[in-house]
From TrEMBL:
It is a multi-pass membrane protein. Pfam families: MFS_1 (PF07690). It comes from Actinomadura macrotermitis. The gene is ynfM_2. The chain crosses the membrane at residues 23-45, 57-77, 89-112, 175-197, 225-245, 257-276, 288-304, 310-335, 347-366, 372-391. Residues 19-402 form the Major facilitator superfamily (MFS) profile domain. The lineage of its organism: Bacteria, Bacillati, Actinomycetota, Actinomycetes, Streptosporangiales. It comes from the Bacteria. One of its GO terms (molecular function) is transmembrane transporter activity. Belongs to the major facilitator superfamily. Keywords: Cell membrane, Membrane, Transmembrane, Transmembrane helix, Transport. It is found in: Cell membrane. This is Inner membrane transport protein YnfM. Its main location: membrane.
Length: 403
């Protein structure tokens, strides 16, 4: 394997530099467009269930197929970025996904809509597959936690807009216009990302080689972090896929546009991810990760009683816990991998989006069989696994993972 020669740290972007500000803005826009596109159907799942006459678990495929396609594509795309460059792959991917998104409102059958969503997922994969490796290469290690947190914050706000915009527009003009408007907004953020993204200064092309994937999978610390990504994302997508169904039914009977407002809590999640990134630079990754998983579990418990204020508070707490855990774990992967960082990050994202795809649909089965109580217990079990992994990252292993 050809490994890129080391590049002096003096060229990396540091806190307070104009270069880091541009990196932060560009990757923030990338997070916005990626997650707007990826989750644009999530808030509309009850409406799409009615429009096409499908059950909740089936409707959730409109999210799961897109995230599953991302999971399948991130590893090969990240490998290509080792040869052709981070910025080129991210820009091509973001533009392609935005253009595919414009075709979604034209679909006339559930099968066609599902197929286009899968294609969009494949097109989207380049941004999340490469963004973390780009940050790990271009940002000084002392500023990486904050930069990673801001990128994750962009994904959180993208998740808000991807759910809020279609939910509000659908009440006025129906789901087709809702998805069309969302696609146009995502295209605007894509163009901003393209204009702002600084070129790579520390990237050096390397021969495409899949052997680093096996080396990363053989690392017990990385395997544990990948497991955190899988279970945390499975729980997160489950909550946001099916809580809307609960809020539309008794005893809440909220309108679609109001139920769609649950996405606003992602703003707090974005702030939590940025804060968690800063805290890891000061306190260490293990205690912040453990605290984040515990926070998420407490939030799920609060959503179980049939009380709208408690559900809202629980969703807020849960979302902050998830985003904090994701910011810590994703940044930890970039530091742990000594080489082929794009492939290490891609394996993390493979687990992350596999959790979204498979775990989210499994959450639909829990909802259909035991309503919200069963769904909550399912999510608690997933975060229990994440907490166990965080506790297991101790002793000699933690020493290795400090990067």
């Amino acid at each position: 394997m050809t490994i890129s020669p080391p590049v002096p740290e003096v060229g990396s972007h540091r806190l307070g530099s104009p270069g880091l500000r541009r990196v932060n803005l560009a990757l923030f826009a990338a997070g916005l467009t990626t997650f707007m596109s990826l989750y644009c159907t999530q808030a509309l799942l009850p409406e799409l269930s009615g429009a096409f006459g499908v059950a909740p678990a089936t409707a959730s495929l409109l999210v799961s197929l897109a995230t599953g396609a991302v999971a399948l594509a991130v590893v090969p795309v990240s490998t290509l970025s080792e040869r052709f460059g981070r910025t080129r792959v991210m820009i091509v991917s973001s533009v392609a996904s935005a253009l595919v998104g414009l075709a979604i409102p034209l679909c006339t059958t559930f099968a066609a809509l599902a197929a286009v969503r899968a294609v969009q997922g494949f097109a989207l994969a380049g941004v999340p597959a490469v963004a973390m490796a780009y940050l790990a290469e271009e940002v000084h290690p002392g500023s990486l936690g904050g930069a990673m947190g801001r990128y994750v914050a962009g994904t959180g706000i993208g998740g808000v807009l991807g759910r809020l915009v279609p939910a509000v527009v659908s009440d006025v003009a129906g789901w087709r216009w809702a998805l069309g408007v969302t696609a146009l907004v995502a295209l605007g953020f894509t163009l901003a990302f393209w204009a702002l993204l600084p070129p790579s200064r520390r990237f050096r092309p390397a021969r495409v080689d899949h052997r680093p994937l096996l080396a990363h999978l053989a690392d017990p610390g990385l395997r544990r972090l990948y497991l955190v990504a899988l279970v945390a994302m499975a729980g997160f997508v489950t909550v946001f896929n099916f809580l809307t169904y609960r809020l539309l039914e008794a005893p809440f009977h909220l309108p679609q546009s109001v139920a769609g407002l649950i996405a606003v809590v992602n703003l707090a999640g974005s702030a939590a991810s940025a804060r968690a990134g800063t805290l890891t630079d000061r306190l260490g990754r293990r205690p912040v990760l453990l605290g984040a998983t515990g926070l998420a579990m407490a939030g799920v418990l609060l959503t179980l009683p049939p009380s709208l204020p408690l559900v809202a508070l629980g969703l807020l707490v849960f979302t902050c816990g998830f985003f904090a855990a994701h910011a810590v774990a994703s940044g930890w992967v970039g530091l742990r991998a000594g080489h082929a960082r794009a492939q290490a990050s891609a394996l993390y994202l493979f687990a992350y989006y596999l959790g979204s795809s498979v775990g989210g649909t499994a959450g639909g089965l829990a909802y259909e069989r035991a309503h919200w109580t069963g769904t909550g217990l399912y999510v608690l079990a997933l975060y229990g696994i994440a907490a166990w992994v965080a506790l297991d990252l101790s002793g000699r292993l933690v020493g290795k993972l400090r990067g």
